[in-house]
Amino acid sequence: MADELSYMTSALRRWRRWTDGPLLLLAIGSLPILLLELQRSDLSAGDEATIDAVNVVVLIAFAVDYAVELRLARDRWSYVRREWTSAVIVLASAAAVTPRLAALGGARVLRAVPAVRAFAAVLRLLAVGGATARDARGLVRRRAVSFAVAVAGLTWLSGAVAFTLAEDVGPGGRVKSFGDALWWSQRR
Questions:
Q1: pTM for this predicted structure
Q2: Beta-carbon contacts of residue 86 (< 8 Å; ≥ 6 apart)
Q3: What's 18's DSSP letter?
């Protein structure tokens, strides 16, 4: 705890008051989408674009947050040591996005490596789990209703992902897209 005090400033506390809730929801809410990476080749182009958009949004949100917090921290080295899970989320999100950017040039070799996406998904899952365990208790106490709505949304999203993984979903399948799976899961 003394390590936390060495980098905490009033500006950093204020920043966290505004960003911790939305970032926690984004991190947890994006986790079910990571499972779709396992079946990416069977999904429609629209579903792949959705996965890519989620990965880019997570990357940008957490990269901006990490940069701002690092800038606001009093003792940056203590901040880096204590907030390593945020850095891992940024790196894992970058790894998830990199294969899709391969068409733009230099990272072309990564395009053929599905293991990069799977590794990034597992890494982000572990980092989000670590960050959530640390931050969630206080957030739940302060925002119980928001948390309940978020859990309901996460359940809906997880149901759609499970349906997508379990059923024949894709251009030639019984259900055409992840969007159809979302519709199905809200009907049940």
A1: 0.69
A2: 62, 65, 66, 69, 127, 131
A3: H
What's the one-letter identity of residue 18? W
- Write down the pLDDT at residue 130: 57
Say if CB 70 and CB 79 are below 8 A apart. yes
Choose among 96, 104, 2: nearest CA to 48. 96
Taking only the tens place, the pLDDT of each residue in 34-75 is 778 777 777 888 888 888 888 889 889 999 999 999 999 999
- 128: tokens are 């989000």
- Give the pLDDT of residue 105: 52
In angstroms, rounded to a whole number, what is the distance separating the alpha carbons of residues 46 and 52?
Answer: 10
pLDDT digits (tens, 9 = 90+) for 140-150: 666 666 667 77
Chain-centre distance for alpha carbon 166? 22
Distance of CA 157 to the CA centre of its chain: 13
Concatenating the DSSP letter of every residue in 80-97 gives HHHTHHHHHHHHHHHHHH
Query: What residue type is assigned to position 181 of the chain?
Result: A
CA nearest neighbour of 66 among 47, 45, 48, 80: 80
Spell out the domain ranges in the chain: 2-134
User: What does the pLDDT average to over 155-165?
Assistant: 82
DSSP 35: H
